[in-house]
Design goal:
Blueprint (H helix, E strand, L loop, with lengths): L5 E2 L7 E3 L2 E3 L2 E4 L12 H10 L4 E5 L34 E8 L5 E8 L1 H16 L3 E8 L4 H4 L27 H18 L5 E7 L10 H26 L8 E3 L9 E2 L1 H4 L6 E5 L4 E3 L2 E3 L12 H11 L6 E6 L8 H15 L4 E5 L13 H5 L1 H12 L8 E2 L4 E3 L4 E8 L3 E8 L12 E20 L4 E21 L2 E8 L2
Parallel strand pairs: 4-16, 5-8, 8-9, 9-10, 10-12, 11-13, 12-15, 15-16
Antiparallel strand pairs: 1-2, 2-3, 6-7, 13-14, 17-19, 18-21, 19-20, 20-23, 21-22, 21-23
């Protein structure tokens, strides 16, 4: 029997799939491949496979606010998304049987009746992805963020015939409502049973488990955080219980409980045996062993902050678990070259720090744009292919982040390195000037200095934008070494390997 994706036995910060080491890398669509009937997931997955993207994130229940809600004055945060299906095109796990109508004008859901179309679509998506070696993150739940978004959820009392979900939106993932929690766990068990036969997925408990209410006192906030932690633990236990009698066992990923202004200690979930990997989002402020890990960006503000990325993955490396930059939203809505370059740099910085990377590619849309636009094909989607091809061409399992390797970089640059001392090195050199720096775009050049163990080495230079090596090579001896980097724009990779 084939085995699902698993932690790599030699380096559990990475994964093993079909007996090959794996880094998760993607510019994914916005998570609506299954719930949006109009989304052509075959066209999307064909392109993802061609671009060597190894991951796609999939929301199984959550539905985004589609349009401005004048009654609540709530505006959609994301400008366009496959996770915003038209009301009549939303495919839910539950049958829309009525009587009565939900808030979107279509029949109410019956939470006791599973929807055959939904599970046929889920099976089709997973099957097609497995045929193309694309790993799927199956996200079971999400925060509902506001009354307007909660008002779209089948588990809201306004939308079902079962009288379930008469709660404020903040209690959706708290476990406070026994009847609601019971329905949530039934849904978890159903999904687990349906998908057990596939190898190419893992579960994420909950996207962005927000808990904050306006004006909440810190002690009250901490208490609610503990409730959400307990609820997530219960979901993990439900997954394990449902899989107990099934042939295959799958990984479980979890996002730390999020509080906008509160440090969240990563040790809390790292110590949980049933949490196989940690998902991080760009704006989270976390702590690890008393060390503050600053947010990796502000939401959709085009922050580069490469030093923060390097620092975070170096800090958590000793945990021995995978850390996935699971949603980088710093510049996703802009859809221009400057913004895509920000994401190219952040993707390379993450992977060369020992992490895994996912950004949302808003160029991917329903209705014939499932492979993006010509511009995104030429840029961000091809750049992600270059990154995936490169990293899967080196022995990354035996490498680790090396903050001491590089001793000098050209002006305005940062160096982020993976190394297997005495054997192989990957040094990502990037212009770290932020987008508001008027000098950004001017070429970088100069001395890259480092120290190598005794031996003979050959260095090659690789372009993240072009996906090609330069013709010239540089021969190096052990000890203090250097390479004079000729003018380059934005970023370059130095790959060093021992001779023989």
């Amino acid at each position: 029997m084939s085995a699902p994706i698993q932690l790599h036995p030699d380096n559990p910060r990475y994964f093993l799939y079909k007996d090959k080491p794996l880094v998760l890398i993607t510019a994914t669509e916005h998570y609506g491949a299954v719930i949006n009937r109009n989304f052509d997931y075959i066209a999307y997955l064909d392109d993802a496979a061609e671009k060597r993207q190894t991951l796609s994130r999939c929301f199984l229940l959550f539905r985004e606010l589609q349009v401005f809600d004048p009654s609540t004055q709530v505006k959609p945060l994301n400008p366009h998304s496959p996770c915003k299906p038209l009301p009549g095109e939303y495919v839910s796990p539950f049958v829309r049987s009525g009587p009565g109508f939900a808030t979107d004008g279509y029949p109410k859901f019956d939470l006791e009746q599973w929807n055959p179309e939904y599970f046929e679509r889920l099976h089709g998506f997973l099957r097609a992805a497995q045929e193309r070696d694309v790993i799927i993150e199956l996200t079971l739940f999400s925060s509902t963020y506001s009354d307007a978004v909660w008002g779209l959820n089948p588990l809201n009392i306004q939308n079902n015939v079962n009288g379930i979900g008469d709660i404020p939106w903040q209690d959706y993932i708290s476990g406070r409502d026994e009847a609601l929690t019971e329905r949530q766990m039934a849904y978890v068990s159903k999904v687990v049973e349906e998908v057990n036969g596939y190898d190419n997925f893992y579960f994420e408990v909950c996207n962005e488990p927000f808990t904050t209410r306006a004006g909440m006192e810190p002690e009250t906030e901490f208490a609610l955080q503990a409730e959400v932690d307990g609820w997530q633990e219960a979901v993990r236990a439900q997954i394990r219980a449902a899989e107990r009698g099934l042939p295959k066992k799958h990984l479980i990923f979890q996002v730390p409980v999020e509080n906008w202004r509160t440090d969240t200690a990563l040790e809390q979930i790292l110590g949980e045996a049933s949490v196989d990997a940690v998902n991080l989002h760009d704006y989270q402020q976390l702590t690890y062993k008393g060390q503050i890990l600053a947010p990796l960006s502000r939401f959709m503000q085009r922050d580069l902050r490469l030093a923060r990325i390097r620092h975070l993955w170096a800090a958590v490396h000793d945990s021995g678990k995978p850390f996935v930059f699971d949603e980088d939203n710093t510049a996703t809505s802009s859809l221009d070259e400057e913004s895509w370059i920000v994401h190219r740099k952040r993707a390379w910085a993450t992977v060369c720090s020992g992490g895994h990377y996912n950004m949302i590619d808003f160029s991917v849309q329903v209705g014939g744009q499932e492979a993006g636009t010509p511009a995104s094909q030429a840029m961000i989607r091809s750049w992600m292919k270059n990154l995936s091809a490169f990293i899967h061409g080196v022995d990354f399992v035996r490498m680790g982040p090396d903050a001491e390797l590089v001793t000098e970089t050209p002006s305005n640059t940062i160096a982020i390195a993976l190394s297997r001392p005495g054997q192989a090195y990957v040094i990502y050199v990037a212009d770290q000037r932020e987008v508001d720096d008027p000098s950004l775009g001017q070429p970088c050049q100069g001395r890259l200095a480092f120290a190598l163990p005794a031996g003979g080495y050959t260095a090659r230079l690789y372009s993240p934008a072009e996906g090609t090596y330069q013709e010239r090579t540089v021969e190096l001896a052990g000890g203090d070494g250097e390479i004079d980097l000729e003018p380059f724009t934005h970023d370059i990779v130095v790959q060093i390997e021992v001779n023989g």
